[in-house]
């Protein structure tokens, strides 16, 4: 047994030597084989990641990404090797950044086809996790590389690319210093559109928007976007996605808190009915609480930013009237959907809470 283990270790040692030599000094065919070997070794054994990084393979793989000719397997293999080296290793991710990957992205983008760009999204996703650890990372090259992918006439639909791209944006948004760059790049509208069209992208997309909403620029960008509130109301209707409902409810509250006009628009597109249903039979306690508070909020007309006093009072009266009509019109249908005597009691409690509850300001 010990002899077999020793033989295996010797084989891996020789494989590492060949891979490092081929990567540094070999022709493109040898570099391809070396990158594949490095990928496989790093995937199997975490200790090999440290050893390979110490042997200087990361800068060579980054250079390989940029210098390789389009059409071969070099870029894909280099990217896959870097992903495996980065997975679970903060140090290796920092080394990849220090090797100039981000500064080389514009050059890489100009000479890379769509399929290769998609193959690089897992690597950028891995690197972007540095932002969650508050490691300073320049978001502009990543945004310039990824956002055109989402803006293309045929945006990616495969799960890996969509998840990698949207989660990368989420990771970057966890650093508030990146918010301005993300907003300026037009990511708010792109994310809202993705949330509506691609359910796979909804949760990371909404989570990114929630992070952006922590800044004044983010709140304003979300509030002023043409897809709000319709997209957020549509997401609230997806009862199979409770986390997405929670995030959509939070963003609706952010928008409603700032804009009387948006509150009126929410009512017009059916938010009252949706909130009543979610408040009664929502799958998470948090989304039920947020729905009930939103109903009371809309009914009371509170917490909006004050504009012209006469317009605000008039709008509040309209909203209260529309909410009351919606409550009366939809109570029986929601009772039927909830079903049973117990549900009737819950629905009665909900209506009491929405219509007769004392004024209370909701704090985000």
Automatic annotation (TrEMBL):
A Pfam family hit: ARM_PUB
Domain of life, source organism: Eukaryota
Annotated InterPro entries: ARM-like (IPR011989), ARM-type_fold (IPR016024), ARM_PUB (IPR058678), Armadillo (IPR000225)
ARM repeats: 141-187
Gene3D superfamilies: Leucine-rich Repeat Variant
Domain U-box: 29-300
Protein name: U-box domain-containing protein
């Amino acid at each position: 047994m010990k002899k077999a283990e020793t033989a295996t270790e010797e084989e891996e040692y020789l494989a590492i030597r060949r891979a490092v030599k081929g990567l540094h000094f070999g022709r493109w065919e040898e570099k391809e084989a070396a990158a594949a070997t490095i990928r496989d070794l790093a995937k199997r054994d975490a200790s090999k990641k440290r050893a390979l990084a110490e042997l200087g393979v990361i800068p060579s793989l980054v250079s390989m990404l940029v210098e390789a000719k389009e059409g071969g397997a070099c870029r894909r293999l280099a990217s896959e090797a870097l992903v495996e080296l980065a997975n679970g290793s903060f140090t290796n991710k920092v080394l990849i950044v220090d090797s100039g990957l981000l500064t080389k992205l514009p050059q890489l983008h100009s000479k890379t086809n769509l399929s290769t760009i998609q193959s690089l999204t897992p690597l950028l996703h891995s690197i972007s996790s540095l932002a969650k650890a508050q490691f300073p990372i320049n978001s502009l090259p990543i945004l310039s590389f990824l956002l055109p992918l989402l803006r293309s006439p045929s945006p990616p639909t495969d799960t890996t690319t969509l998840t990698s791209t949207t989660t990368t944006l989420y990771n970057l948004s966890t650093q508030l210093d990146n918010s301005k760059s993300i907003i300026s790049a037009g990511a708010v509208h792109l994310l809202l559109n993705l949330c509506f069209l691609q359910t796979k992208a909804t949760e990371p997309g909404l989570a990114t928007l929630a992070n952006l909403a922590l800044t004044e620029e983010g709140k304003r960008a979300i509030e002023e976007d043409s897809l709000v509130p319709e997209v957020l109301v549509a997401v609230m209707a997806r009862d199979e996605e409770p986390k997405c409902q929670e995030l959509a409810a939070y963003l609706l509250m952010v928008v409603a808190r700032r804009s009387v006009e948006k509150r009126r628009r929410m009512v017009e597109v059916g938010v009252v009915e949706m909130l009543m249903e979610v408040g009664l039979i929502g799958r998470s306690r948090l989304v039920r609480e947020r729905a009930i508070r939103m109903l009371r909020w809309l009914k009371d007309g509170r917490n909006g930013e004050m504009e012209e006093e006469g317009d605000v009072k008039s709008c509040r009266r309209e909203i209260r009237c529309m909410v009351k009509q919606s409550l009366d019109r939809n109570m029986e249908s929601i009772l039927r959907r909830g079903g049973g005597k117990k549900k009737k009691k819950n629905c009665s409690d909900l209506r009491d809470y929405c219509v007769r509850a004392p004024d209370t300001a909701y704090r985000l």
